[in-house]
Amino acid sequence: MIPQNIVFIGAGHMARALIAGLRRQGIAGEQIQVHAPSSAHRDALAEEFGIRSLAATAQSLPANSVVIYAAKPKQISAVLALWRQAFADAGVLFLSVAAGIGSARIAAELNPGSAIVRGMPNTPAQVGAGATALYARDSVSAAQRQTAGFIMSAVGEIYWLNDESLMDAVTALSGSGPAYVLLFLEALEDAAVLQGLDRATARALALQTVLGTAQMAAASTLSPTELRHQVTSPGGTTAAGLAVWEEHLRPLAQQALAAAAERSRALGSPEKDIP
After folding, report:
1. In what order do the strands lie in the sheet with 5-9?
2. 94 in Cβ contact with 117 (< 8 Å)
3. What is the pLDDT of residues 69-106, one digit of tens each?
4. Measured between alpha carbons, how far is 133 from 177 in angstroms, rounded to an integer?
5. Residues 121/126/128/134 CA torsion (nearest 10 deg)
6. How many CB atoms lie within 10 A of CB 115?
7. Cα–Cα distance between 145 and 1 in angstroms, integer?
């Protein structure tokens, strides 16, 4: 079901990515409105996408509306208090993409019977290549679930979870994952420069290697392990490099995801609303 009224709370990068995706999907500009304290940010979105720009105040919502929370996690309690009355209509869907904020907390602060979907997108949504995990509370109808999927699929692939407790792991993996990959790219580039390549060539080769390998893995029915074995000859150059990666990479990945997941859990506690 395509919503007739889409309300964004927040005018940052994720809001922009979603608005751009929805407009590409054919949603009319007059169906979308953005609420944010910064008139400069919301007016810029209005000018770029032909949507409505409104101050950060609540308003009554018609049935078949969707409110998308795309502001900072630390601001959510104040926003929920402001918009609580607007959710008296059971036909209104609240879709949150705030990291770490659980749906039970949203329901308690908004309205226990509210239809709430929690999503965890990532920054490749800015180029339509995002990965978003979604979780719907029991109060969400089949039509509202379809609506949430439609909205988030406008910026990439979607994956539904049946257990919300897994959202912290998703946040640590795909939510924070782009930063890990970018750090890996930086490290490869710097290491190649130390081996004598100029920076522009090192960056281009590192980027295309990661991009091409991801495309190859996505197109193959083989697992990453099997594909890796195909390119690794015993005693060869790849084997020499992999020996170093194998010693350090797996423990680091486990530590990094554990730290990010713990931070996600901490963000979900009202007393730990930390920037």
Report:
1. 52-54, 32-35, 5-9, 65-69, 93-96, 115-120, 130-136, 156-160
2. yes
3. 999 988 899 999 888 887 776 578 999 999 889 999 99
4. 13
5. 10
6. 26
7. 9
Q: Is the pLDDT of residue 273 over 50?
A: no
Question: What whole-number distance in Å separates Cα of residue 136 and Cα of residue 122?
Answer: 18
Among the listed residues 177, 179, 175, 118, the one whose alpha carbon sits nearest the alpha carbon of residue 152:
118
Please list, in sequence order, all residues whose beta carbon lies within 8 angstroms of the beta carbon of residue 263, skipping any fewer than 6 positions away.
100
Task: Tell me if 171 sits within 8 A of 99, measured CB to CB.
Answer: yes
Per-residue model confidence (pLDDT) at position 90? 58
The model carries a pTM of 0.89
**C-alpha to C-alpha distance for 27 and 131, rounded to whole angstroms:** 21
Distance CA 68, CA 8 (A): 5
